[in-house]
Amino acid sequence: MKKKSILDRLKEGPVLGDGGYLLELEKRGWVRAGPFTPEVALTCPDALRELHIEFREAGAEVLQALTFYASRDKLATVGLEDRLEDLNRAAVRIAREVAGDRCLVAGNLSLTWMYEAGSPTAADRVRKTFDEQLAVQIDEGVDFIIGETFSFLGEALIAVERARKTGLPTMVTICFENKDETAEGKSAAEAAKALIDAGADIVGMNCLRPPVHILAPMEEMRKATSGYLACQPVAYRTPKTRPDFTSLPEFPYALDPLQLTRKEMADYATNARDMGINYIGACCGTVAMHIREMARTLGKLAEDSRTWRKGGEKPMSAYEYYGHDHMKAGANH
């Protein structure tokens, strides 16, 4: 049976995305902090496969191929510019293998670090970069395209332009750093309108900021357009004065104490749904426990029903002994 497209699924209600890959794989020892390039798809495909499985089993309805930062210029920083095709191909194949008929697989484009506002030459380099990745990803059979983490609206618009040429549904999201605007000074509402006008099927925001600092601009987007919106925040707690987690001194080696709880991410999913956000996912710092609670709060995953015969007169675990078994998973104690 042919899988329903992302657009058909969105017509039926909110779609749950997956979580973060590069930072989690770095924590597990498979990605190097600094370049954060995704060669794990080649060097240890089983590690990537396992993370995809975790997100699938947690209830994600989309798996993103790990092709973020898999462009020639970015790979050149770690001496892998000649492995672009191998890497993009392997990443999509692994995601498709895990997805099976349960999840959609999204191809992925990301910021390039080569875009310059007002430079036709830089824009053409970005186009060439996107086209090179897309050719491989399309050949491997992705279901739709996600372009993400664009501080420059101009670069996001190029992503829309190139992705649309594939004929597949296109989702493109921008990110705000420490100011509530794009690098060119455009508001969330202005960016959403521009991306929709350019032909994107789904627009929104992702990365850099946690839910508390991303939902307000998402609400501006919701007021500005009736189209499909996507939101994928990070699962790290940041101060209002420095909402971009990559700007904090804790990035990237001391982020652990800043990680949000599964309940906080579940609350985000509820708030996003109630706000009218259609694609509810997450980004860096988001692991399977977060996606699982998000899936439950969105009614996409049932509570754990595995057999458990409690001890009877005496508790058989500290979970029972201290009364935690009366608490809902993820609840504050």
What does this structure look like?
It is a single chain. It contains 13 helices and eight strands. With 333 residues, the protein is an alpha/beta fold. It has a single domain (6-326), classed as TIM Barrel (Alpha-Beta Barrel), CATH 3.20.20. Strands 1-8-7-6-5-4-3-2 form an eight-stranded parallel beta sheet. Strand 3 (104-110), helix 7 (120-139) and strand 4 form a beta-alpha-beta unit. Helix 4 (45-58) packs parallel to helix 6 (84-99) and helix 9 crosses helix 10. It starts with 5 loop residues before the first helix and ends in a 12-residue tail after the last helix.
List keywords for this structure.
globular; alpha/beta; TIM Barrel; single chain; 13 helices
Per-chain topology:
Elements: H1 6-12, E1 15-16, H2 22-27, H3 40-43, H4 45-58, E2 62-64, H5 72-76, H6 84-99, E3 104-110, H7 120-139, E4 144-150, H8 153-164, E5 170-174, H9 188-198, E6 202-206, H10 211-224, E7 228-232, H11 262-275, E8 279-280, H12 288-297, H13 318-321
Parallel strand pairs: 1-8, 2-3, 3-4, 4-5, 5-6, 6-7, 7-8
Helix pairs in contact: 4-6, 4-12, 6-7, 7-8, 8-9, 9-10, 10-11, 11-12
